[in-house]
Amino acid sequence: MKDIEDLIQKAVELQSNGLITAQIADELNVSRETVIWLLTRSKKEGITPAPKDIAVNLNSIGKSAKRLHNVSLALCDIVLETLEKTNTEVDVVVGIAANGIPLASMMAYELGADLAIYHRKGHGIVHTDYRGTISRNFGSVTGKNCVIVDDVITTGSTSIEVIEQLREMDAKPRVVAVLVDKKGADTISNVPIQSLVKIVRLD
């Protein structure tokens, strides 16, 4: 129960620092529904059963550049194995802000590819007209083979958003690479998902 109490405390602290639900979900690597449940539970108001989710703590990797480098090498290996099947090369590694950026930058270096950064817009706002953007301060994706990098896939909504945006820019998303896949799907929007760890809930 201590882990749940720790998550509640972190969620409340992040909310008090001005983060919205989606940002708290990114920080804690849980779904938005879980964040709402944690914040509701903190107030002891109308507590509902916990959502089916798994919290992922990647602090021991994220705080060490050496560990991030080693993990990025493992992700590069998985990406290259996937792309060899279609005889495709990597042109650009797209890091999803903020948690995917450290891994993406190291992977781009190792793969000899350009680095692009995807910033989400309308973070936590439910409107179809809010779209993310590829930063102009990094590599171009137009017409290029892209590898999308993030730390965790929970529902897949962010990956879908990035894939759609890349396709609209005439880019070719080839694989989504993550540390942890909580969705458990093999593909998302017809793009393969490759992860170091895949979590499958047995219900």
UniProtKB/TrEMBL annotation:
Keywords: DNA-binding, Glycosyltransferase, Transcription, Transcription regulation, Transferase. GO terms for biological process: pyrimidine nucleobase biosynthetic process; regulation of gene expression; UMP biosynthetic process. One of its GO terms (molecular function) is orotate phosphoribosyltransferase activity. It comes from the Archaea. CDD domains: PRTases_typeI (cd06223). The keyword Zinc does not apply. InterPro entries: GfcR-like (IPR022854), PRTase-like (IPR029057), PRTase_dom (IPR000836). Residues 79-183 form the Phosphoribosyltransferase domain. Gene3D superfamilies: 3.40.50.2020. Pfam families: Pribosyltran (PF00156). HAMAP family: GfcR. Belongs to the purine/pyrimidine phosphoribosyltransferase family. GfcR subfamily. Contains an N-terminal DNA-binding winged helix-turn-helix domain and a C-terminal regulatory domain (or effector binding domain) resembling phosphoribosyltransferase (PRT) domain. This is Transcriptional regulator GfcR.
